[in-house]
From TrEMBL:
Keyword Transport in record: no
Gene Ontology CC terms, in alphabetical order: radial spoke
Keywords assigned by UniProt, alphabetized: Cell projection, Cilium, Cytoplasm, Cytoskeleton
InterPro entries registered for this protein in UniProt: Radial_spoke
Organism annotation: Orthonyx spaldingii
Domain of life (superkingdom): Eukaryota
Record-level GO BP terms: axoneme assembly; cilium movement involved in cell motility
Location of this chain's protein in the cell: Cytoplasm, Cytoskeleton, Cilium axoneme
Residue ranges, annotated region (Disordered): 196-255, 340-360
Protein name per the record: RSH4A protein
Length: 380
C-alpha cells in the first residue's frame, strides 16, 4: 500500500510516538505501568491447566505464522484447542525419557499413605483404645497461628497423622510434636516421646559395657606405664604426668537431658528415625560451634573444636539445649509430683489442680509471673 495519504483513514498510524491510547493515558510512566499490569494479568497461571494466557497467545501466533492456514479467523478456536492439546500430549520419544510424574503428584502420593488405614476396622478400634493420648496438634497450631507463627493447617494435620502412625509402630507411652528445624537440603520434623517401662534398656547395657571396657583399658595402660618407668634411667629428662580429666558419663535414659526419646523424619509420611541419647561432651561442644543442618543424619560435623559425633548427635544436643532453656509456664501452674522430689530438686512435675491464673495484663507486663519448669543444663 505504501505510506498513507492525508485523506486516508489510516493516516498517522505509522508516525513515531503515536498510540491509540494517548488520549486516555497522558502520563508516560502511568502508561508504562498500565502495560506492565496488563502483561502481569496475562501471565497469571491457571490453577486447572497450569498454563497462562500470555504464553498461550504466543504459541497460537507462532503456529499461525508457521503454518499460515487460509481463513485463520474462522478456525482460531480449533487452533487454540490444538495448542492446548499439544501441551498435554504424551510424547513417545525413545531418545529421551521425559519425567511424566510431577513433583506435586509425588508429594501427594507420600501424604496419601497417611490417610490409608491398614487392616480391618475392628483392629483399628482396638488400637485407638490402647493408643497413648496424643495432644491435639491442630489446636496447638491454631493458638500459634493467633501469634503469627507456626506451620500451615495442612502440614500440621499431616504431622498429626504421622505421629499417630509412630505410636502404632513404637512402644510409646506419651508422644508430643516437639517442633520443626529447617535444613539446607531437607528439614527435620521432631517428635518427643516417652517409651513404656522396660523399653530402651539395650542402649544402657551397651553403654555400661563400653565403660567397663574403657576402665580395663585404662588399667592396662597404667600398668604398662609403670613398667616403662622402672626400666627408664634416672638421667633421662622428666616426662609429663598430666592425665586428662575423666569423661563425664551420660545421664541414664529417663533422667535429665535423656528424660525423653526423640524421633525425627524429613517429611510427614517418611519413616521415623530414633536419635541416640546425648552426652555431656556433645552439649559442651555444641555451645561453642554454630553449624547449619543439612537434613541428613549421617552428615559429618566439620568444626573447631571438633564435635564428637555426626549430625544426628548434633541435632540431639541442640534439642536438649532448646528444651532446657525454652520451656516456661505461669508460676504455680506446675507442682512437684512428690514432696520428696521437691526437697531433692527432682524434675518430675505435674499440673497443679488448684492453680488460679493471674490476669493477662499482669502476665504481659511482669516476668515474675513466669517460671522455667524444666531444669537448666549445668556448665560441665
Amino acid at each position: 500500500h505504501g505510506p498513507y495519504q492525508p485523506h486516508e483513514p489510516g493516516y498517522g498510524l505509522d508516525q513515531p510516538g503515536y498510540s491509540p491510547y494517548e488520549d486516555q493515558i497522558l502520563d508516560r510512566k502511568a502508561r508504562m505501568l498500565a502495560i506492565q499490569n496488563a502483561k502481569a494479568y496475562l501471565l497469571k497461571t491457571s490453577t486447572r491447566s497450569g498454563l497462562n494466557l500470555y504464553d498461550h497467545f504466543a504459541n497460537i501466533l507462532t503456529k499461525i505464522l508457521d503454518e499460515q492456514p487460509a481463513n485463520t479467523v474462522d478456525i482460531i478456536e480449533n487452533i487454540s484447542k490444538d495448542v492446548k492439546w499439544a501441551q498435554f500430549r504424551k510424547k513417545m520419544d525413545t531418545l529421551r525419557d521425559e519425567r511424566l510424574i510431577l513433583p506435586t503428584f509425588e508429594a501427594a502420593e507420600k501424604c496419601k499413605a497417611l490417610f490409608v488405614k491398614e487392616g480391618g476396622e475392628g483392629q483399628h478400634e482396638e488400637l485407638d483404645e490402647e493408643m497413648p493420648a496424643l495432644p491435639n496438634v491442630m489446636e496447638t497450631a491454631f493458638y500459634f497461628e493467633q501469634a503469627g507463627i507456626g506451620l500451615s493447617k495442612d502440614e500440621s494435620y499431616y504431622i498429626f497423622l504421622s505421629l499417630k502412625n509412630l505410636t502404632n509402630v513404637q512402644p510409646i507411652q506419651t508422644c508430643r510434636f516437639w517442633g520443626k528445624i529447617l535444613g539446607l537440603e531437607m528439614n527435620y520434623i521432631i517428635a518427643e516421646v516417652q517409651l513404656r517401662e522396660g523399653e530402651g534398656g539395650e542402649e544402657e547395657e551397651t553403654g555400661e559395657e563400653g565403660e567397663e571396657t574403657t576402665a580395663e583399658g585404662e588399667k592396662e595402660m597404667g600398668e604398662a606405664e609403670e613398667e616403662e618407668e622402672e626400666k627408664e634411667e634416672e638421667a633421662e629428662p622428666p616426662k609429663s604426668t598430666y592425665k586428662p580429666p575423666p569423661e563425664i558419663p551420660k545421664e541414664e535414659n529417663g533422667t535429665g537431658t535423656n528424660k525423653y526419646v526423640y524421633f525425627v523424619c524429613n517429611e510427614p509420611g517418611k519413616p521415623w528415625v530414633k536419635l541416640p541419647p546425648v552426652t555431656p561432651a556433645q552439649i559442651v561442644c555444641a555451645r561453642k560451634i554454630k553449624k547449619f543442618f543439612t537434613g541428613r543424619l549421617d552428615a559429618p560435623i566439620v568444626s573447631f573444636p571438633p564435635f564428637p559425633g555426626n549430625e544426628a548427635n548434633y541435632l540431639r544436643a541442640q534439642i536438649a539445649r532448646i528444651s532446657a532453656g525454652t520451656h516456661v509456664s505461669p508460676t504455680g501452674f506446675y507442682q512437684f509430683a512428690n514432696e520428696d522430689e521437691e526437697e531433692e530438686g527432682g524434675d518430675t512435675h505435674e499440673e497443679n489442680p488448684e492453680f488460679e491464673p493471674p490476669p493477662v495484663a499482669e502476665m504481659v507486663d511482669s516476668l515474675t509471673t513466669w517460671a522455667h519448669h524444666v531444669k537448666s543444663i549445668l556448665k560441665q
